[in-house]
Design a protein that fits this description.
Blueprint: E1 13-14, H1 17-25, E2 34-38, H2 44-51, E3 56-60, H3 64-74, E4 79-81, E5 98-103, H4 109-118, E6 125-133, H5 134-141, H6 151-159, E7 160-168, E8 173-174, E9 181-188, H7 199-209, H8 217-223, H9 227-233, H10 247-259
Helix pairs in contact: 1-2, 4-6, 6-10, 7-10
Length: 262
């Protein structure tokens, strides 16, 4: 059965064997490690993962035709969850921590990452090894004061250490996308600034970066009844713009926002 990639699901199947090997080698999969693969497609990466003999491999795949192909190809070697990844409670998949691999659909890649970060159950994964459109990866990796720095940079940096592994040429995929890709590795931070509700960080960053060319006084006035108190506490220069504030400032602002009863 020939499988045609679905544009609506953002499918681009990775076919280059050298790249597949590089991806699997990012983490040390041993007999005691369980793996979650998101969007297995035709199972090209799955084959390489199975060669490493993980304790168990779970696969999230939404496309029913691909599910059938994966079942034919791997049988009981894998456990398939036939759902949209955005509807899955990952922390309930396995009692053991998971190494997560994913050639994420480009159209929802930041939604998936944001969902995992804002999930209050932080102890379900060992690491994420994920593929993104290069432009998105650049935004995730971006540092304060750079043009790419924004909401996803701040959110990613909150709970995760992020490392660029390698850029991947579009020729490694079928069908060939018009953009380059980048592989990133994410590992959990030991110390994380605590928030009662992670959605508050999303609210704070949205209000600031919806007006990224404006000075920060305007969003501060929007968020706080007494912005001068916040300005003094964080020693903020009100002539700065959102991209000039370090991630830690946003985490602190989210805490202050929560203290107002939000």
């Amino acid at each position: 059965m020939k499988i045609k990639a679905k544009k609506s699901l953002g499918q681009n199947f990775l076919i280059d064997k050298n790249t597949l090997q590089k991806i699997v080698d990012v983490e040390n999969i041993i007999n005691t490690s369980s793996v979650l693969e998101v969007g297995a497609g035709t199972g090209n990466l799955t084959e390489f993962i199975l060669e490493k003999k993980p304790k168990k491999i779970f696969i999230i795949e939404k496309d029913e035709k691909l599910v059938k192909k994966l079942e034919e190809k791997f049988g009981k070697k894998i456990e398939i969850i036939n759902k949209d990844v955005l509807d899955v409670s990952e922390h309930l998949i396995s009692p053991e921590k998971l190494i997560v691999y994913g050639n994420l659909p480009y159209n929802i890649s930041t939604q998936i990452l944001s969902k995992w970060i804002t999930n209050n159950k932080n102890n379900w994964y060992i690491s994420f090894v994920l593929m993104f459109q290069k432009e998105v990866a650049d935004r995730i990796l971006a540092k304060v004061n750079s043009k790419n720095y924004g909401r996803i940079s701040i959110l990613s940096n909150w709970k995760l250490n992020v490392k660029k592994v390698v850029d991947i040429n579009s020729s490694c995929f079928m069908p060939r996308p018009r953009v380059q890709s980048t592989l990133l590795k994410f590992t959990p931070k030991q110390k994380v600034i605590t928030l009662k509700n992670s959605k508050n960080l999303e609210i704070i960053t949205r209000i600031f970066f919806n007006q990224r060319r404006k000075k920060i006084k305007k969003p501060l006035n929007q968020l706080f009844k007494n912005p001068d108190k916040i300005i003094e506490k964080f020693k903020l220069n009100i002539n700065l713009r959102p991209q000039n504030l370090a991630p830690e400032v946003y985490y602190g602002l989210a805490q202050e926002y929560e203290n107002l009863g939000n």
